[in-house]
Amino acid sequence: MSDAPADVTLATPLTRLVGVRHPLVQTGMGWVAGPRLVSAAANAGALGILASATMTVEQLRAAVREVAARTDAPFGVNLRADAGDAADRVRVIVEEGVRVASFALAPSRELIARLKDAGVVVVPSVGARRHAEKVAAWGADAVIVQGGEGGGHTGEVATGVLLPQVVDAVDIPVVAAGGFRDGRGLVAALAYGAAGIAMGTRFLLTSDSTVPDAVKARYLAATVKDTTVTTAVDGLPHRMLRSELVDALERSGRAAALLRAVRHAAAFQRETGMSWRRMVRDGLAMKHGKDLTWSQFLLAANTPMLLKGSMVDGRTDLGVMAAGQVAGLIDDLPSCAELVARVMAEAHATLHALPAAD
Description:
Oligomer: single chain
Structural class: alpha/beta
CATH architecture of the largest domain: Alpha-Beta Barrel
CATH class of the largest domain: Alpha Beta
Distance between the termini: 25 Å
Strand order of the largest sheet: 1-2-3-4-5-6-8-9
Radius of gyration: 19 Å
Helix content: 40-55%
Mean pLDDT: 89
Number of domains: 2
CATH topology of the largest domain: TIM Barrel
Largest sheet: 8 strands, parallel, barrel
């Protein structure tokens, strides 16, 4: 790799679409992807994505302005399409000149059209081919597809199976997520037909991440067998590090789980200043959008506060740690600049080490 150019670049449909130097995306992780990490990723040449679901609209505008003050490079904002104030958040994105809007749930056709009319690139995240086909038909510019190896809410289909399915199904750039950490993974994704890779856990484990050191240490100590997929947090499959708290959540009964969810909903209401009416309205939208039971709807209140316990407060005994399986392969904390340069150098070396065709 020492023979690689100082600033290796790979032009792909993703880099051309959003104007970044490298086909790498730092995902919008709640409580993690704040202005410092996003601007560091952007300055390194990747597409940094700001997580906004845990912010008020006013906090989102302030965070966007902070990122813009730290970098001249393009960046994105991740939104909840089912949020009651989604229109207000879209207004912030448009007014502040944000380049990319990403979504954890499929945005409506109308929301996509509004963003595209304002010149914003729309990049939803999906976990199934049919969802990719739907948002592509509605006008999405690209799609991030996450396989089951990925952290947080995840599906059952591995990236190596899901990615080629989606690439073959849509005519827009596809970004691969789930199980990526290095240049070899980037080359593999490109070989499948992807336009780049998105990484969450790998960017979380950088020196630019604001996640407390004690929590990072738990990630670095993990092996590939130390993540688990559980429904105990919010009723949906959620990949995270196995911990004493996760074990306790899985042992607790339904009544205790629902009581905990109510307490966490109250805490989230205090944290964000969101009205109870608004929380119920958003929850109902999420319930119907994901076809949740009433119990799952209540349990959904657990997710943001349990993540905050670890990612902000540093309490691994009181919070959960969303993690991709790739956490077991990560053993250092480079800066975003060092990480991106390393990934691109590894990709360059991997490409040149491939056997030549006859």
